[in-house]
């Protein structure tokens, strides 16, 4: 759905969300060029944490934050359920179609054929967002704030218990022995999972449970920024709580390792804590001190985050689909010819990723000039 107007909201939220989308595009395009990028732009291979691992949970946190500026109890229950189901279904379908795209493939003998839908990955980034959004929306509508805190604790502790007792003995935190992989293989089958890890899917179904807490945390933090709130006090509160949660996540790590690909509970607490502190810093700089430098740039991404993320993914897949010569794709050719040949190594990869991000920003700028905001 295309809307021609925008509801008033905190500018810092748009900037937080815009910076998240901006970094997401840079991270996603830093790999696949054949040259090693800066370590901060690469997800931790398994246990551990890098700056890239903060991007996805930050987007979930921003979704919850945006939900805090509307009344969750407004409207009839049937209308509410229909609206949530529609949004979640569209998001899920977009994610599914994104992995099926470009719908055809070329065999080794050069023949073209349709890609079977039975070999398409079911879960993914947008699919996890869809399910986490739907479950969070239901919780926010039917539970008070104290109930949301209790639910968050139950989800994190319950997920820990599932991973400890539902995985293969002594392999609870391995790629193929963890409870999430075993559940995905049983329910979805190997053909519908991520192709590069032999049956492990980093956005599997079970990981939706702790990711709901990232959304709820964004919502609860947003409630601290409701109209009439003392922003200075809210900033201090977010800084203190954020630091405490990050430290709690680090303290939990020896028992439940920090791992994005498993979306562990310790990882959730660490990312929520960092997000709270980042948002607090933005509120202090933009809403309280009136900081303007660079705001417009990230606001462009923040106004149409879903559309620009989809565009970036479709552009990536399209460039990787088009062949240039034997064994090369346009994506690789552009990176190697226009960037890595001029600036070899990690800086060349960064220049390519930033340039790719700026192409997406240009689309966002055009949408903004036309006063178009694309929502579902």
Question: Which keywords apply here?
Answer:
two-stranded antiparallel sheet; about 60% helix; globular; disordered N terminus
Q: Which residues sit in consecutive blocks of at least 5 with pLDDT less than 50?
A: 1-8
Please summarize the sheet with the most strands: 2 strands, antiparallel
Rg from alpha-carbon coordinates: 21 Å
Q: Report the mean per-residue pLDDT as an integer.
A: 90
Report the principal-axis shape.
Answer: globular
Helix/strand/pairing class, anyone? mainly alpha
Number of domains: 1
What is the tally of beta strands? 4
The end-to-end distance, rounded to whole angstroms, is 6 Å
Strand content: under 5%
What is the string of SSEs from the N terminus onward? EHHHEEHHHHHHHHHHE
Number of distinct helices: 13
Helical residue percent band: 55-70%
Strand order of the largest sheet: 1-4
Give a structural overview.
- Mean pLDDT is 90; it is low at 1-8.
- The longest helix is centred in the N-terminal third of the chain and has 24 residues, at 77-100.
- Helix 7 runs parallel beside helix 9, helix 11 packs across helix 13 and helix 12 crosses helix 13 (346-369).
- The chain has a two-stranded antiparallel sheet. Strands 2-3 form a two-stranded antiparallel ribbon.
- It has one domain.
- The protein is 60% helix and 3% strand.
- It is mainly α and 376 residues long.
């Amino acid at each position: 759905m295309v809307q021609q107007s925008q509801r008033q909201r905190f500018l810092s939220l748009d900037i937080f969300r815009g910076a998240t989308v901006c970094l997401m595009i840079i991270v996603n395009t830093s790999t696949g060029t054949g040259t090693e990028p800066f370590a901060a732009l690469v997800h931790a291979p398994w246990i551990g944490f890098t700056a890239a691992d903060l991007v996805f949970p930050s987007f979930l946190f921003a979704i919850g934050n945006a939900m805090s500026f509307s009344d969750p109890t407004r409207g009839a229950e049937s209308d509410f359920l229909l609206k949530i189901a529609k949004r979640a279904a569209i998001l899920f379908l977009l994610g599914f179609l994104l992995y099926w795209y470009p719908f055809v493939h070329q065999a080794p003998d050069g023949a073209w054929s349709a890609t079977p839908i039975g070999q398409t990955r079911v879960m993914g980034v947008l699919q996890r967002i869809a399910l986490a959004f739907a479950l969070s929306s239901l919780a926010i509508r039917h539970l008070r704030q104290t109930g949301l805190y209790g639910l968050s604790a139950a989800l994190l502790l319950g997920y820990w218990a599932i991973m400890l007792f539902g995985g293969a003995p002594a392999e609870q935190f391995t790629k193929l022995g963890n409870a999430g992989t075993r559940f995905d293989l049983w329910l979805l089958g190997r053909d519908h999972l991520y192709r590069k890890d032999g049956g492990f899917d980093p956005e599997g179904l079970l990981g939706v449970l702790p990711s709901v807490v990232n959304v709820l945390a964004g919502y609860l933090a947003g409630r601290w920024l409701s109209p009439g709130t003392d922003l200075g006090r809210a900033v201090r509160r977010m800084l203190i709580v954020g630091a405490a949660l990050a430290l709690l996540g680090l303290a939990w790590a020896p028992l439940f390792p920090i791992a994005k690909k498993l979306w562990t509970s310790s990882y959730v607490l660490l990312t929520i804590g960092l997000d709270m502190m980042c948002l607090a810093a933005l509120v202090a700089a933009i809403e309280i001190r009136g900081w303007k430098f660079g705001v417009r740039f990230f606001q462009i991404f923040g106004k149409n985050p879903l559309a620009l993320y989809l565009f970036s993914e479709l552009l990536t897949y399209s460039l990787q689909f088009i062949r240039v010569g034997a064994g090369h794709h346009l994506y690789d050719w552009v990176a190697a010819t226009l960037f890595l040949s001029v600036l070899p190594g990690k800086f060349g990869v960064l220049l390519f990723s930033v340039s790719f991000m700026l192409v997406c920003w240009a689309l966002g700028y055009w949408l903004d000039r036309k006063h178009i905001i694309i929502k579902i």
